[in-house]
Specification:
The complex is a heterodimer of chains A (688) and B (309). Chain A has 18 helices and 24 strands. With 688 residues, chain A is of the alpha+beta class. In chain A, helix 17 (590-612) crosses helix 18. Chain B has two domains: 7-208, P-loop containing nucleotide triphosphate hydrolases (Rossmann fold), CATH 3.40.50; 221-308, no CATH class. Chain B starts with 6 loop residues before the first strand and ends with a helix. The chains are: A alpha+beta (688), B alpha/beta (309).
């Protein structure tokens, strides 16, 4: 194994070197992009991708790295085996006194070392650069390397898929590369996973399956027959994903190219409730982006007093009121949790503000960290100390910069307020202090806050606690307060709207306000959209004057596109049955019925095929169950992984029999010797 | 010396798709001999060797090599078999010395003396890259790598392919040296019948995926005989002759090649009343060409064309 390892290391080192050079260029470009983002941020008003400030968390880099690791891993595995796939070189490789499993181990170990060299070393280099102060004007923590690490670890999955493709003796070229289907599926699952442990598990399982399949291919010279059972199983699983992908892509292409051009476009209709400055709620219905009707809650259309006709959308927007909203998340771990690969930066920091060419971040430990945008050096941190100045607290992430982009408009630079779970602070960046201006009671807790720039709410801060919704001045004075009704756990979203006083420049106590409490989308979905939206009208001095609950105008997204309908009908019935959506309605639906029909048809075809070739009873049962569980992808897998021998007429019973059997499966007659013609010369071969 | 055959097959068959490459091969190769495996291109020689080496699975039938099932050759068995492939493929990026070092690490019985002696015989420079070697030099290196582990059985797939006569002669001499000095068995395929004639004890002849002959070399030559019959005019029609391979008519002459010719064959030919009848001696090459050439009688058209020339 050691000799094979050394040989392969030397043989393929050039490839690793080329890979490393390409990856270093990509990483340098990502690093430069991060610096450019910083320069843009310092020099211009506008928006920048906050994630790009820390290259390790840049979505662009993660995507590039994901593609690079997949392609590099696959190329390495494929070339490492393809170079020796020539039948004589293959013979030279395997005809030696070591087992093929040892040869595989030596080659795989060498390949993985080369992968680590080509992809791992550049990543390590980037990490060390980023971790060294003075390079990046953004926070750095070692867990920030996790998304890139997860992406890096997908490479070995593709490496083994490449190896398998290089070796596999498939009946047609296409199915040779079906192992990549498994690798792609694993990659997608890793991207969909919510934490590192899950993605590591997926990587391990996928790499393990493909490694077993590649090892089996080494042992059998690329054939299905002759592999150990584990190899056969792994090859079947790896090919299944490829077959599934091919089937859905084929259906998609057929529908896109064959049917869609002739199908009339169907715009879907949806409705929503909109409040006006007068505090009245209207139901707006739109089709394909155009407003169709605006009616009040009694169903009477809203007429334009100027024209007497149904009011136009533009006119209605002038009457509409748009408030500030916050989404509360209490200590449920959600304050800094986001998808760890797709939105990694949100797990680690929010860029709060950029003042005097200095960048201020609220990090995941609840500290406000400052970095000099010019020197890219850390300049200091501010930690909240509670109303008494002695209680260690942590800042909640500001709602104002919750998206992917950081908005660097001048009015945003006026941001001064941050809050912890108990206290609202006014930040003094010159003195590096956080001055408490408001505290909630010990039994209450701040869930979200928003410093507003809406004209009537400028410089006000909206906070939602477990018990109330408050609007504060920057000095902590309460402008208004309303009870948080209903319970925040089911209604985390609250919107504050200022009514009347058409576009006032400042608030006064005579203003009327409205609060809109929206239920959590997922929880409402689970209840079948039974949770209502709660509206409350109130004034600062009189409190709540009236309330109203309106059903959520949920739309199911309009008519299901043809591809979705066809694709969902092709999903194996076994998977449909396991789906959490399964209920009587789904079970009796057209798609489920078609799915059951396709699955049964695939099962019957599979059974007929395996019976035609007279598989053993065990293999017949196994494949039939497999196809019945997995439907058409399962049938395609059966057809792809098995070798199908020629059939010829048995001279005994005149029926077709497979040539790979020792005797006829129908009449048990042995194969007859080749016909003689009287010119044969056979004599005893005994050495004198 | 063990009496068990070194190679034994029973109904060994290989299909590639619908094409039958080897059909029901029954063969036994005794120990300590040089066994030549002959046949035209595509007749199934290489496929048979690859099946015997466990590189491609047989479609059906069975076989043993050194007493072990060809479907499950262990590393220990492979250590006892030297295999020289048809195209002498090696790692092009290695040089001659590295190739030797690489190979030697796998074989505990590596005989450096043999290796250097064969490499020297082919005048190979240790630092020469394999990819820069000529075909003959590469064949020499392959042979050195195959011989140095001192295998019990040498499987050589057309070792002389593409070699010039000098290189081929060197290779043949190496083979003779090896077998005569020890009790090794050499199983080789070849198209160079003069080489076969020099070294082979036995031959097997493949014709369109079927084994047609397996016998001592001398027996084959004895079995294939050619008769020349002279006539005053046009030779008469040929009666049915058992084992007829070819009959070529020319003006006033009939040449008949057949196998297993006996007194009855001679009597049948004499019954045609030729002016003269003689038996022509055939070398292996002529016997082989006649054996595998076009069967049956050639027409007068051909003889007329030949006459015009």
């Amino acid at each position: 194994m050691k000799t094979i390892f050394q040989k392969d290391l030397r043989e393929n080192f050039k490839l690793a070197l080329i890979g490393a050079a390409i990856f270093i260029l990509l990483l340098m470009q990502a690093y430069q992009s991060s610096i450019n983002t910083l320069i843009n941020l310092l020099d211009h008003n506008g928006s920048v991708m906050a994630a790009n400030l820390q290259p390790l968390l840049s979505q662009t880099l993660l995507m590039e790295a994901a593609f690079f690791c997949a392609i590099f891993g696959a190329a390495l595995g494929w070339l490492q085996t393809r170079n020796e796939a020539h039948r004589d070189l293959w013979a030279y490789l395997v005809h030696r006194p070591v087992s093929r499993a040892d040869i595989f181990r030596g080659k795989a170990f060498a390949g993985l070392c080369l992968y680590a060299f080509g992809a791992g070393l550049p990543l390590l280099g980037l990490t060390l650069v980023v971790a060294t102060p003075g390079h990046i004007a953004a926070p750095f923590e070692w867990p920030m390397t996790q998304p890139l690490l997860a992406v890096f670890l997908t490479g070995p999955v593709f490496y083994f898929a490449g190896m398998l493709t290089g070796l596999r003796q498939a009946r047609w070229f296409g199915s040779k590369c079906f192992g990549f289907g498994g690798a792609v599926a694993a990659s997608l699952a890793i991207f969909a996973a919510n934490d590192m442990v899950v993605s590591l598990l997926i990587t391990l399982v996928a790499a393990g399956i493909l490694a077993l399949a590649a090892r089996g291919a080494y042992q059998s010279g690329g054939f299905y027959q002759g592999q150990p059972a584990a190899g056969k199983f792994a090859l079947t699983i790896a090919t299944l994903a490829g077959c599934g992908a091919v089937m859905f892509v084929a259906v998609g292409l057929t529908i896109t190219l064959g049917f869609q051009p002739f199908t009339p476009r169907q715009d879907y209709t949806y409705s929503y409730h909109q409040m006006t400055r007068g505090g009245k709620i209207y139901k707006v219905t739109q089709t394909g982006g155009d407003t169709q009707t605006i009616v009040d809650l009694d169903g009477k259309p809203l007429l334009d007093p100027k024209t007497g006709k149904m009011m136009e959308k533009q006119e209605f927007q002038k009457l509409s009121v748009w408030g500030d909203s916050v989404t509360s998340r209490f200590n449920d771990g959600g304050q800094f949790s986001a998808h760890y690969i797709l939105y990694p930066f949100k797990n680690f920091y929010r860029l709060w503000n950029v003042v005097d060419r200095k960048l201020w971040y609220v990090d995941c430990h609840g500290r406000l960290l400052g970095y000099d945008g010019v020197t890219r050096q850390f300049i200091g941190s501010i930690e909240p100390r509670g109303a008494d100045g002695a209680t260690a607290e942590t800042f909640l992430p500001p709602s104002s910069q919750n998206g992917d982009y950081f908005y660097s408009y001048s009015y945003y630079r006026e941001l001064q307020m941050l809050a912890s779970a108990q206290t609202v602070y006014r930040i003094d960046l010159k003195k590096l202090t956080a001055n408490p201006v408001f505290s909630c009671t010990n039994s209450d807790e701040i869930g979200a806050y928003q410093e507003s720039f809406r004209s009537e709410l400028t410089s006000k801060i909206l906070i939602s606690t477990r018990k109330s919704v408050r609007l504060l001045e920057r000095d902590g004075q309460t402008i208004l307060e309303a009870d948080y009704v209903p319970a925040f756990t089911k209604y985390p979203n609250v919107q504050l709207m200022v009514l009347r006083g058409s576009m006032p420049t400042h608030l006064n106590r005579t203003n009327e306000f409205a609060l809109c409490f929206t239920p959590d989308y997922r929880q409402n979905e689970k209840t079948g959209w039974k949770m209502t939206t709660h509206y409350a009208w109130f004034t600062a001095d009189k409190g709540i004057t009236r309330t109203l609950d309106l059903p959520v105008l949920h739309t199911d997204g309009g008519p299901t596109p043809l591809y979705d309908r066809v694709a969902s009908s092709l999903v194996p019935f076994g998977l449909v049955a396991m789906s959490e959506k399964l209920d009587a309605k789904h079970l009796l639906g057209l798609e489920s019925g078609l799915s059951l029909m396709w699955t049964l048809a695939a099962g019957i075809i599979g059974l007929l095929v395996v019976r035609r070739y007279h598989f053993s009873t065990r293999a017949t049962a196994g494949w039939t169950i497999f196809v019945l569980l997995l439907g058409i992808p399962g049938l395609l897998t059966l057809l792809c992984v098995q070798e199908w021998p020629a059939r010829e007429t048995c001279p005994g019973c005149k029926k077709l029999r497979a040539v790979d059997r020792e005797c006829c499966e129908h009449c048990a007659a042995e194969f007859s010797a080749p016909e003689t013609n009287g010119t044969e010369i056979f004599a005893p071969l005994v050495k004198a | 010396m063990s009496e068990l055959p070194v190679i034994q097959t029973r109904g060994l068959t290989k299909y590639f798709g619908r094409k039958c490459a080897v059909d029901g091969l029954n063969l036994e190769v005794p120990r300590g001999c040089v066994f030549a495996f002959l046949g035209r291109n595509g007749s199934g020689k290489t496929t048979t060797i690859r099946m015997l080496m466990g590189l491609v699975p047989p479609t059906h039938g069975s076989g043993t090599i050194l007493g072990h099932d060809i479907r499950a050759l262990t590393p220990e068995v492979r250590a006892r078999i030297g295999y020289l492939t048809e195209e002498h493929q090696l790692y092009g990026w290695m040089n001659v010395r590295e190739s030797g070092e690489f190979q030697s690490k796998f074989f505990p019985k590596w005989n450096a003396k043999i290796y250097h002696s064969v490499v020297g015989h082919f005048a190979l420079k240790p630092d020469a890259k394999v990819k820069d070697l000529s075909r003959g030099e590469r064949a020499g290196l392959c042979l050195a790598l195959t011989l140095a582990p001192e295998p019990e059985l040498l499987m050589l797939d057309d070792p002389g392919l593409g070699l010039d006569p000098v290189a081929r002669r060197a290779l043949i001499e190496s083979m003779i040296y090896l077998t005569r000095k020890s009790d090794r068995t050499i199983f080789f395929s070849s198209h160079h019948l003069s080489d076969v004639e020099r070294v082979a004890d036995y031959i097997a002849v493949f014709d369109r995926s079927v084994l047609r002959a397996a016998c001592p070399l001398g027996t084959f030559q004895e079995c294939v005989r050619q008769f020349r019959l002279r006539f005053a005019g046009t030779p008469p029609a040929l009666p049915k002759i058992n084992g007829l391979l070819q009959a070529i008519r020319t003006e006033g002459e009939l040449r008949v090649t057949c196998v297993h010719a006996n007194r009855e064959t001679e009597n049948t030919l004499r019954s045609l009343l030729p002016l003269e009848m003689e038996t022509l001696p055939l070398g292996l090459e002529d016997a082989f060409i006649n054996y595998l050439g076009e069967r049956g009688e050639k027409t007068f058209i051909l003889s007329e064309m030949e006459a015009k020339q």
